[in-house]
Amino acid sequence: MRTFENTDPYKLGEDKRVIFRYSQPTFNNRNTDYYYLLLDDDYFIWATKGYFPPLNGKPEKWVGGSFIEFPKSGLSWFINAIEQKFMKTEAEGGLKKEELTYSEVINDEKLVASRWFGTPGYGLANASRDRYGSSTFKKQQEFCFTDEMLFDKGLLDNLKIIAKKIDSGEL
Fold this sequence. Notes:
It contains 3 helices and 8 strands; from the N terminus they run E-E-E-E-H-E-E-E-E-H-H. It is of the alpha+beta class. A 4-stranded antiparallel β-sheet has the order 1-2-3-4, with no helix packed on it. It has a 4-stranded antiparallel β-sheet with strand order 5-6-7-8. It starts with 17 loop residues before the first strand and ends with a helix.
């Protein structure tokens, strides 16, 4: 399995691997969160950066980095999981009512799509990779794409365009 370094939020804006940018106001509408899809050979990296305000005499700073790394063919798989597994009934080929996750091994990495409810959305996880930030607490890489991001703000449509480019060999 290919390894990566955590992305530096200060360098994301100029990173040559960025193929897509998305932004939205923070939950309190005071700042903006930035999201980046980076293409590194046959892998995607979904990375973020957000503004962290001054606190306890320390200056403001950008925080963020890589949330999830996955084989680029996993993007089409994730979109298919949302549309064909979560948005269809069992009779139509979707998941059973009580199932909230769907997983598959793609290029030797276990990808997991899940339905989130506290923050309505769909999670994409790579159970084969540990999250950055803690060497003592191991947790899989994961990001929740909110329903608002995917459907109301058009992120899913943009991801579909990128997935088609992958499937056609353009990317």
